Amino acid sequence: MTAPQPTTVAAAPLAAAAVATHCPYCALQCAQSLAVTPGDRLPVAVAGREFPTNRGGLCQKGWTSAEVLRASDRITTPLLRTADGGFRSASWDEALDLVAGRISALQAESGNDAVAVFGGGGLTNEKAYALGKFARLALRTRLIDYNGRFCMSSAAAASNRSLGMDRGLAFPLSDLAGADAVLILGSNMGATMPPFVQHLAGVRERGGLVVVDPRATVTAKLTLDGAGIHLAPVPGSDMVVLLALLHIVLAEGLQDAAYLDARVEGLDAVRRSVAQWWPERAEAVTGIPADSLRAVARTLADASPARGGRGAYILTGRGVEQMAQGTDCVSAAINLALALGLIGRVGSGYGPVTGQGNGQGGREHGQKADQLPGYRMITDPAARAHVAGVWGVDPDSIPGAGVPAVQLLASLGTAGGPRALLVHGSNVVVSAPNAIAVEERLRALDLLVVCDLVPSETAMLADVILPVTQWAEEDGTMTNLEGRVIRRRTAVAAPGEARSELWILRELAARLGCDALFSDDPETMFDEMARASAGGKADYSGISYARLDAGEELFWPCPASSAGEPAHPGTPRPFTSTFPTPDGRARMVPVTHRGPADEVRPGATTYLVTGRVLQHYQSGAQTRRVAELAQAQPEAFVEMHPLLAERLGLGQGDVAVLTSARGEAAAPVRLTTDIRVDTVFMPFHWAGVGSANRLTNDATDPVSSMPEFKVTAVEIRAAVRDLDLKGALR
Amino acid sequence: MRIVVIGHGMVGSRFAQDAVTRIPDAHLTVLGREPHAPYNRVLLSSVVAGKAAADGIALDAPAHDRIDVRQGVAAVEIDRERRIVTASDGTLHRYDRLVLATGSAARIPQIQHVADPDGLVRGVAVLKDLADAQGILAALPKARRAVVLGAGVLGLEVATGLAARGLAVTLVHHADRLMERQLGSAASQIAEGSLARLGISVVTTTSVTRVIERRGRVSAVELGTGAEVLTDLLVMCAGTIPETALARRAGLPCERGVLVGEDLASPADGAVFAIGDCAQPPEGGTGLVAQGWDQAARLVEAWAGDGAGTAAGEAPAPTTTVVRVKATGLEVVTMGLSGKFDHGERELRAVRISDPAIGRFVEVVVSHGLLVGATVVGDKATATDLQALYTRMLPVPTDPAHLIVRPIPGAGPARRSVAEMDDDDTVCQCNGVTKGRICDAIAAGCATPQDVSRATRASTGCGDCKPQVKELLEAHATSEDRTPALAGAGEAR
User: Which of A196, A284, A673 sits opposite B407 (nearest CB)?
Assistant: First the structure.
């Protein structure tokens, strides 16, 4: 298992005893080579590995990722809550018997839906698949959802309704290199996934990079020195930017008429809906000069193939998707891309930039409340029949659709709501919106079981903590932001008694009397998942560990071929000939700008936007435990413009207290002119009083159920005293 | 609920779409005088200027089985007793609620020979609907000169649009300054300078008094000063008059517009409502589409909310009267208090910058920490920022002067060359590698960028610092050339 794994994309042969795998963190899934170093402080030495996505590069998180393997507070045995509120070690048998016993008792008392499951977008495909299957067959509960709801749900919903499929980028990342224009909205990949930036070198040279962000982020600054344009809209108004760009394209006749005729439905309704967003009106709403909007529209159009350009891309990130109108906002981006004839053309396209490590694969195989493996709908009788066949169960025994994450979390421990929750690969106390309320809900449960590597803030609330393996300690597959299926490989054994979730689910399923297949062998689970996905939108049935280990570059859909036929080569660029919609045509969807649910108003006069810093990942449960990263970014902060700070009487390093309709948070001020005067920024990687999600809004998108993380109206004041903030805050 | 809407313009069509979406039992009949689908009237000047196509400004009005749209059919009579509207095609339309969205008409000033019994003299036009715009477009190929009467927003847009098409334009205005309701003298003078640079002659404090015809077409106009101006085209942009004729005939109280209360209902008839340019609400009509759209939304909200239809939702949103001229080469934006406003009892701070040489004028008016008005000529970026502050009523910086003087782009820490950096400055942001660490690695023998990357991780993220690393290597090599002893040390590794 730990033998060198040559791949066709590896430029240099790996040293003996080096394992080819990928980074534990974000969706770029940078290729790494792990040299096993017995006897050293850390069990492996990490190096970047040549691969089409990262080209050998790693960021500081990736370089230091081995530190998490030996985090000083790594959990190495199951832990049970004691009467005095602490934890004690327990054997696996004791812990699993306890969990299974409590689950059975609660379900006997309150029905199957008394137990709910919360998954994560960082789990391998195999784990995500097994977790969905476990919820439906072993727990027989409807109630499973996952933190990908906070990540990709809006982009997924919009892609599905317009393009018939949600395949992330729908093109290999390296395709970006040849474009004349790339429009990036609400993504800061320069800080969150730095090796991505290499693919923007070409477009920057040609001056065609357009970044839309209320802050002059690292990514926005890539437009400096003639490399492109940065537009800084009022938070929550990004959609109007897109509507106005399409307005200009249509008003000036810059659209790709032949492509629209041949491949797209719905132009007329969209044309009429953007008619009301002439640039001067958009200017008043977005804070972006009408002429800048015109310039960007022309840049994109000139880059489009129909007008002789080398190609253009539109990329969206959480900044525009984590809104109560996030799905519509992505539709506005897709409408623009369709009007310019970009989607399904080699060298052009639209794509959401997936965030979590397995954000793509995690949303395809059954962790979603309404979904079965292969991106199938759980409400579709044919889908249920197919999956039931693979699982060897009666289709009627598969429960129906559950509820999405925010609703699920809000119902925990309420009358009629779930009484037990199993959490896998998520730190909801820090990462969910309206975090104070989420913590209250978790405390109201009869049973909270958390699988984690380290005592995360969510694990610390658990009744039972089960220690699990991580990245370099396990095999599996991940699906990166391109829809490319890649292999994660074991380099070292996990410390103590940490076990793979596959093993835990197998053990629990057996104790719950479920005889469906749950194997702790990842390849066995992958093969079953591949069969379950056959014929679905995300068809993995032609993919195998053998093919991946032989170095094949496989993007889904990759259906199994019949005997004697050559293996399917995978689909790096879906949509080039047709769209997987009933009539093969893409659909433009007219959308309406509604604005943020939490708009600035007297008493809450400043916009809060949230995001990441380079050194930390998600809730920080891993990265805050890496000394080098924690040293570089030790604590939460509030970024603000000096003009705002001056009005508020705040200086560099002073503690600001932010109040929203949901709660208060406090953090030191960092002054910068890289942000709009009406906006402050907080990173969301920290717990406690500096937790940005104490403030954020749990209002959700009506289509995707994405919460509105990205726009919060806050009032800001100077802390009366820097000390004892905790006691002072609500 | 049977709703009849008279008027299928920007406000009437928006109201009908919103109503049918939000009110499940609403059945609507919409009578539209013009024979077109609704279109964006605000962009008519852009059509004249050639910046938008006449067929590219249609508005969203999807068919709906509970909306019956009659295009090209005007309302001719309202029988309020029986609640029936008679249409120009003879059809009768019963209503439970009637919404007047008849808009406004172009005001035609008193000008001798401006019209004959068939209508306006050929070559004389207003710009109020699509037919007007198409008429002007049709006249353009043979026109070399144009006179635009009225220097309000529309007049300025038409004048600049025609100038951009190559016509010699004379702009005639009755007041002593442009946009006299929005601009003070100083701002107007600066805007006039911008017009002069566009080749537009401006004549103020006078009007067109007579149209001079030749072979049935306008050939010149006479001004109040007695001067004659040769022209092929006269476009009158002298304001608008709310369309109230139908309402007046039906006995509804009207002043300038159809009088309505805060609930947008006529005080004389609770079943009749007026929205958009034809209405005169307590706060007054602004003639801006934003107000009409807000009224449409409020009316729908009220009817969808409780079905009682008596209260039009919340009070009107504070009138955010942003006035903006859409013209190439002339940037004018005003909001709230602008021009010659009355300070009254308020504590106002008005701060201005006047910079005629480059055509820039900015004035901000601040009261109790909020921006309550602004005038901006020739400064797009500032205008845009001020609109965002003003429309959202956000607090302004302590010193209002900061609203006017924008930081120089790139101000703040200057981008320094790597040679100027200190040892503890970060060169590789992705991996937090300082210049000092890179120099140490080079001193310790790293001779290529790859060596430095392996030793320090610099350039292994986004790769943007590769040039700086190379520069440090080159600097070291140069110093080695000058210092043979060090070069020797390098070889010895």
Answer: A673
